[in-house]
Structures are given as C-alpha cells and as structure tokens.
Amino acid sequence: MKNNNMTIECFNSENIGSYVKPFRKTPVYGPIDSRRLDKSLGINILKQGYYCNFSCIYCECGLDSQFKNQKLIFYELSEIKDGLKKRLASNEKIDTITMSGMTEPTLYPKFGKLIDLVTDLRDTYSPNTPTALFTNGYKLDFKNLNKIDKIFVKLDVGTEEMFQRFNRPKISTLNNTIKQIIKSNTKMIQSIFVKGADGNISDFDNYIKLIKQINPDEIQLYTLLYAYNESFDLHPLSIDELKVLSNEIKKNTNSIVKIYTNPVKEGKIFVY
After folding, report:
1. What is the four-CA torsion angle of 144, 256, 18, 61, rounded to 10 degrees?
2. The model's pTM
3. All residues at 6 or more sequence positions from 11 whose CB lies less than 8 Å from its CB, including other chains
4. Which of 3, 138, 162, 187 is deepest in the core (most CB within 10 A)?
5. What whole-number distance in Å separates Cα of residue 134 and Cα of residue 100?
C-alpha cells in the first residue's frame, strides 16, 4: 500500500536491495521503520526539485536528472513548524525525530534555525523523544549542533579516489569530511559496504586507517536495503560478511561496532 509519503508492506529479506523509497511530499513524514531509530518521524527540507552535494552510487533517493527541469524550492520554517507541531501533538508512537529526508539536511539555508525549531517543539510536546541527524559531514560547524541528541555522519571509504568514485561529491573532498568530523567532535559514524564491480569493499583496509585517525565512539555498519541506480554493479553483503568487517574494525580500533540489517522482523509490517 502506498500514499504520498510512505509505502507499507510485509518485509521480505529476499527483496533487499529492491525496496523503492517514495519521494517525500510533505515537510514531515512517517513515522517510518528505521534500522537504527525504530519509529522515526522524518523532517524533509525539499518542497520541489532535487539537489544533493553528493551523488552516491547506492543512493535510494534517485538521480538529479529526474528533476532537472524543476526549480529547487525548500520548505519554509513555518511549514515545517506547522507539520511537526501537529504530529507531535497527536500522541502517536514516535521513537525519534529525524532530520534526514531526501537530501543532505545541512544544505537547508536556515539549518541552524531548523535545529532550534525541532528541538524546541520536541521539548514542548514530546520531551522524552530524542532528535537525530543523518549527514554526509559536509558542514558540521553549526554552533547549536550539540542540541541534537544523535548525529550520524557518513563515511564509506578510505581514499579520495574511492570517495570520488563511490560517493561522487560535487563540492567536497574526503579531507574536508574528515576535518569536519574531527572538528565537530561527532562520535558516531555510519558506513555502508557493498560488493560488486562498483562496490567499496576493496577500500576497507584504507577505511580502517581513517577510522583510527577519527577515533569515533561508535561505528554502524550496514548494506543495501533500498533500490539504487541499476546502471551500477552493486550487491548487498550478508550478515556474516558484515560480521567479518565488524571483527576487523574491533581488532584494529577502540570503537564500538554495531551492525544494522533488516528494519523489522521477517514477515512483519514494514513502513518506509
């Protein structure tokens, strides 16, 4: 079953890598089933068009070319406020309020004010619900970033060459990402690993070297779940393969390593 913002169906692990995430059409959507955050209420900054400063080859949000004739329009803070206030006042089950959506959230022109808005509304209507941010680490120098409870920074590679091929940044470098992570003192890294001719598993040893440099408290490993651009040769890792990577990281660093695979149990209702 589909609506403007979500798809609801029974989860089947055989469909991993083929779940098509719908384009979000409201400033607040969900709650969806998150592998890390359970029932996650999402904040979406894009009202029309699409742009991201990365063009990762595994991205589930589609390609910029699909929206090349659409003017890029962000939601106003007032629109996000009205949507979030309504949802938080409804008393529905929400485990996390997440700034994620269909692009890099920190690209929002008023991101600092968005942090204040989200955390203030949370404090008023649902004070026990944590806030979260998923980011590619391009810009982490906001003065009020520490108001967000959980910040997950993406790092999938260990070299600039793989960064350019796998994450395909438009206005950034791997060195900039590392500087932003270290400077912000962000301590949770999320990393996808995939097999195939266009995968990043071959860069794993270099990735561990970077992890040693960053010294995060926690690393979250995962693999493909959603559909991606089929022009690339990518294949998900098995849970056993992820465990091998996890053990290598633990052996070479002081970081806690967690593995995230299925969002819900087999056969259960999956909202995404």
Report:
1. 20
2. 0.91
3. 262, 263, 264, 265, 266, 267, 268, 269, 270
4. 138
5. 5
